[in-house]
Amino acid sequence: MGKLWPTWDAFIETGKKYTAATKKAFVDNAGTSVFHQAVNQGPQKYYDPSGNVVYSTSPQVKTAFDLALKAVQAGITAKQSSFSDGWSAGIGKDQFAVISAPSWLLEQIRNNAPGTKGKWDIATIPGGAGNWGGSYLAIPKGAKNPKAAWDYISKTQSPQGQLAHFVVTGALPTTPSVYKDPKLTALKDPFFSDAPTGTIYTNSLLGLKPFYIGPDSSAIGQELLNAITNVEQGKGDPAKAWDSALANIKTAIGK
């Protein structure tokens, strides 16, 4: 399937063909499954490498925003915001055919739609790869036994610890030293039509370049998502969505 959409424009065109043929939505929503993915695929997001705010002038941000609006206007989205009740129910009710899914989201699909085993598959996302967040562990300053906490973190977050966790839960290791381990490369997921999840997700990371995340990245991203969702829900004007998002960001972060 990934060969059908090497680019986001090709993804939207595929969606238009699918929707025309089936009269059903192609993708769950434009905010997280198009904008959020496309904006995370570039070397620079809302800040430049020096920590300067550049969201309003970044070509990567504007291109991703326009792609999301293009998907909305193409009429291929189910208008179901990620992690909402409607979205969770829609996964198991054939309300959309495609959802952007990092490795950690696969478990939610299994839990929300256990009856869809074997009906899903995994394909490479348009544009290659990107980054949809991660998890962090911290030891509180007032911890009674910080050494025991650190020992636990060191063990579970070691390369082999992360590999074992991935095999059980699907949480992608952040340790490239295990990416060629047979336990990972041989891993297939029967729920997702025996897709080779171990190689699909690790290969997506090869060559991926990091970008700077600043103190207001979350707030900036949320306002951009809000503007896209407003248009998708019929509450916003697509011609004014970008300027509206920029105004709301300035109100939220003061710059």
Structure report:
The chain is mainly α and 255 residues long. It has eleven helices and no strands. α10 (217-232) packs antiparallel against α11 (241-253). The relative contact order is 0.15.
Any chance you could write out the topology, listing elements then pairs?
Elements: H1 8-22, H2 31-39, H3 59-73, H4 85-91, H5 106-112, H6 146-156, H7 159-169, H8 182-185, H9 197-205, H10 217-232, H11 241-253
Question: Quick recap of the structure?
Answer:
The chain has 255 residues and is mainly alpha-helical.
Globally, the shape reads globular
Radius of gyration: 19 Å
State the CATH topology of the largest domain. Answer: D-Maltodextrin-Binding Protein, domain 2
| N-to-C span | 42 Å
Helix content: 40-55%
Question: Considering the protein shown, what is the CATH homologous superfamily of the largest domain?
Answer: Periplasmic binding protein-like II
Q: What is the CATH class designation of the largest domain?
A: Alpha Beta
Mean pLDDT: 94
| Number of β-strand runs | 0
**pLDDT < 50 runs, ≥5 residues:** none
**Please, how many domains?**
2
Second-tier CATH architecture of the largest domain = 3-Layer(aba) Sandwich
Q: SSE string, helix = H, strand = E?
A: HHHHHHHHHHH
Task: Tell me the β content.
Answer: under 5%
Structural class: mainly alpha
The number of helical elements comes to 11
Largest sheet: none
